[in-house]
């Protein structure tokens, strides 16, 4: 595994361990606001800790945005996506082991921070609501990331801007879908939960990827990019 792929593995592990871990282990104590903060802080930590190695994309939808914007090659895109999914699965496995140490925990009843929609899941929002939220939120997230990391963006603030954006997205969407905007984040818990989490996983792969692809295409075309900046790798 290359140093970039390893950084993506570790970074995505951090994201899922902090974010999903907060929901599973502390959700009853910190609520949606605390979970949103945990996801945002995880991005800040990974961005400043690992961003110099791989860019800390930590998300196949973000990597697809970089690909469609012309700022990433296909080889790196594939390597990043594999590393991100593996990192998410590894983190979900660790959270599962820790949660299982509590006497009254059962994955069938308590879950593992999986994403979803419909009756019995958080606010009970519809498929259409979930699809629209995940597409729009991912589009906005990737647009911010591409803008914050372009060459004339204020130096040193990208990690903070991206982390705060992810926090805001969670504050809007946790009750709708649990907030994915990241196929890897959704795949990790779903692998262990199975059932409905797996059957609904397609939305949390396709909608974020579509949102990321559109954001990248617009950035690459110069529509959401500073006119003074050319695409960079």
UniProtKB/TrEMBL annotation:
Membrane topology, from the record: Multi-pass membrane protein
InterPro entries xref list: Aquaporin-like, Aquaporin_transptr, MIP, MIP_CS
Keyword match Signal: no
PROSITE patterns: MIP
Domain of life: Bacteria
Residues spanning the membrane: 7-28, 34-56, 77-99, 125-148, 155-174, 201-223
Main location: membrane
MF-aspect GO terms: water channel activity
Keyword RNA-binding among UniProt keywords: no
Cellular component aspect of the GO annotation: plasma membrane
Localization terms from the record: Cell membrane
Alphabetic keyword roster: Cell membrane, Membrane, Transmembrane, Transmembrane helix, Transport
Similarity section: Belongs to the MIP/aquaporin (TC 1.A.8) family.
Record-given protein name: Aquaporin Z 2
Organism: Paracoccus haematequi
